[in-house]
Amino acid sequence: MAIRLSGMTSGLDTDSIVKAMVSSYTTRKEKYQKAQTKLEWTQDAWKSLNTKVYSLYSNISNLRFSTAYNLKKTSVSDTTKATVKAGSGAPSGTQSLKIKQMAKAGYMTGAEIKADSEKTTLAQLGYTGGDAKLEVKMGDETKSITLSASSTMNDVVKELRNAGLDANYDSSYKRFYISSKKTGVANDFTITGSNIDGASALYSLGIAYGGEKTATGTYTSNPYDEYAALHGASDDETKAKIEAAVTSYNNLTTDAAKWNAQSKNLMNAVNYGYSYATLQGIYEKLDANKAGDSDKLKLLEKLGSSRDGAVISKNGDSYDTYTKTTLTDTAGHTLYKYIDSDNNSHYIAAVADTDKDTTSYYDVTESTRTAYTDADGKELETAPTVVDDTTLTVGDKTYKKDETDGKYYLQKEDGTADKTDSITVSQKTEYTIAADAVNKTDIESASAAYDAIIKSMDEKTKSSYDEALASVQAFETSKDEVLGSDDEYSVASLTKAIQNAYAAGKDKVGGGKEAVEQLLAGNGKEADGFVNKANKLEKDAEDNTKKAADSNIVKELASKQKDSAEYTQALNDLLDRVNTAYTLQNKALFNSQVKKVAGQDSEIELNGVKYTGDSNSYSINGLTIEALAETGDSAISITTSTDTQGVYDKVKDFLTEYNNIINEMTKLYNADSAGSYEPLTDDEKDQMSDKEIEKWETKIKDSLLRRDSTLGSVMTAMQTAMMSSVEIGGKKYSLSSFGISTLGFLNAAENEQNAYHIDGDEDDANTSGKTDKLMAAINDDPDTVMQFMQQLSTNLYSAIGDKMKSTDLSSAFTIYNDKQMKTEYTNYTKTIKEWETKISDREDYYYNKFTQMESAMTKLNSTQSSISSYFS
Description:
The chain is an alpha+beta fold. It contains 22 helices and 30 strands.
């Protein structure tokens, strides 16, 4: 940079002069700065609008499906007994509900003790034992607690809480209050002593519960009885009783698992049976229109998602499907594979004719040859000479076989193997199109063939086909994890029974469908009906599960492999528990004043069917029921109907969001021109007030998207989608069919001519006085309204989606050219920097010139002074 001397000798304002001289450069730089600022504001405007459009796009995604409009409302005849919410799957109508029993948490109120405060110790209560071992059991979970004579009431509370209970000691009433954290039988609790000291500590704390005391002095619920019942006269006899209990437990659980699996299969088979019959009926209709289409479709179904890489070939009266492989023939053509009924593989080669844009298919022959590969994995161009089973030669090189890895290694002069030079011998399969192979005809794309058959179905048949096929495939591909394939109620057995019934009844009056329905109903015997069988098996399994729960103390032992070290250890541990329980059964003391409320499951009856649970909440067939109080044998009614107001609000909310966005777009598109307004430079801002600057910049920002072609195309796409008509049941509908329309240019407020209004909308001053056709349509024919809104939403979703596709100029889910703008912004930054460099260089040039001038003038002045001195 040149030294900048500012008029020291000349007295000139050099800075101002230089600034004026480079002003043309500065103007250029400011031009680009203003353009960049304007671009940045435009980006911000688009980002804001894009966020709103994407929000609309996301929200209408769900509106494409019936579940968005299948809204339900429900009422209960007695809201003090239950509250009910209806989901989209809840059936309309009135249902009967009885609340037979409320779920309760286990609750214990301890006996009064002499602990005056939370700091009172067990010793002060008279406990003199050592380590008191306690067990807190909740369902299948058991936790151990250890107390001592120095443990305080606070310590006891803390240990009980750590074990998962709610516990408190009230020093005013001198009692412990203990409860389960959850309701239900499975969440109930017991607190017992694991040793004599533990039982003694519980008694001192007033929480030793043994049930009610009888006249004979015994207790009705001695907690040690269950383990003590397995006690024998000797340890060997006790072990024998324990192992007998294990056998009984295993038998009960095994049978329960089997019956549950059978019950599940029978219930699923009912749906399968109806779906199978429906599917076969569709196949028969296809064949009636075109023989062989059902066989063709069945093959294509089996391909599933691999249809896109497969072809189907006519083979006499049947079809073969060939799936695409990664193999090629010797000429590099892709091979397609077909596996016949004997599990043999057949291949055809696809030969593309690029000139005609067609593909021909030829059978290929399969051959095997010996391949020789070098150490780098490349096949040798010339095959070695085989000397014997262990020796190969290549020219004058000899290779010997290494039996450890089967490779042939080069033999060095000293007789050792060169491990860097080897030959691998393998068998290579090759595929070749025979010279006389004929182009196979009647081959078509599997996906195209499938689509053609599906398109031949009417909409109702297509819907039935999709539902039935999904059900059939789900059942037939399900796996039995408990039952053997030969079990009467295995998936395989039930599938065969239903298919045989259909085949046997196919040519009889009523056809195969009726034969299947009769089989499912029990062929005249109600008890043999699949549902009745399933219910009985489920009840048997439930009974067994309850019996197994009665002997739950051997559950852990039953889970061990018999004769294993783990089993032996668990058996010995249980033996100790049984012996201890037997001792405590007779020696443990119980507090007669302690009261225990057992945990209880809830029980309801919905439409005569009993349901139980460990809470008071149920979710059944779309209804969420919260039981509040028992009804006894009296029933309350639940009435469910279509939530017409909810559907109306769903449509209204959609239109409100659409209107907000389209109005904003219209305003941006029709904005007033900013004329010659450009972003301000810093110097220009210095001459204006903050309010003037804000007003100036707002004028520009409001006009940035005026008449923008991209904005216009997005608006047009959205408006076209909203104006589209939808055909339902042979009749065409549009928004106007339901009293929804725009106000038009003459009646609408400025920039709101594209917004939609609902006739009769009480919140809309423009249309509130008109007849509410939308609500009337929802009440009279909700299905039509829902179908229309689904298709309209789909049209709008697709229209916006098309505008948001990724391109070279824009990112995915973006309606404007964000990539292009980002590049332009970067280019402006680069250009501005270049002009700043030019300005700096030019300033240096001029300052250098002025510096030289100042230097010359200084010398001149010095010379003049010297000459003047000679004349003075």
